[in-house]
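Hi W., the zinc ion complex you wanted:
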Amino acid sequence: MERIRVSTGSRQCLEDITAQVSDAVRRSGVEDGVCHLFVSHTTAGLVINENADPAVARDLLEKLEALAPSDARYHHTEGNAHAHIKSSLVGQSAVAPVAGGRLALGRWQAVFFAEFDGPREREVAVTVVSAGRAEAPAEVLSRERQANP
Ligand code: ZN
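Structure:
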């Protein structure tokens, strides 16, 4: 597992981190597997969606704001209750396949760090798992026992 650092530029934004995630996948040396991303923050999240038209990210942020307005009244009085709600709506993790040593996103897809209470220094944990290691432990043990009785 490695950590990617993200400096978010404003209070609420979607930062495209696809290049950083792709670099982490390349460094892992995994050819075929899964890239798991996790954000250990309660007022941020991860989104995989279109980056070709920036209006998509803008629409997403605006609709989230309509669902949980920044200036509404909440029980949580730290001033960032809306950010906790938005974080819960988008989720703290994302998974994408790794094929041929690369992050196998769709043509129009990008990985975004979703900031709802910035600007801040944030982190994303990236874990790249090889499909070759995804065998059931019982099967592995049984095979080893047969090989070394
Ligand atoms: Zn809070």
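DSSP finds four helices and eight strands in the chain.

W.
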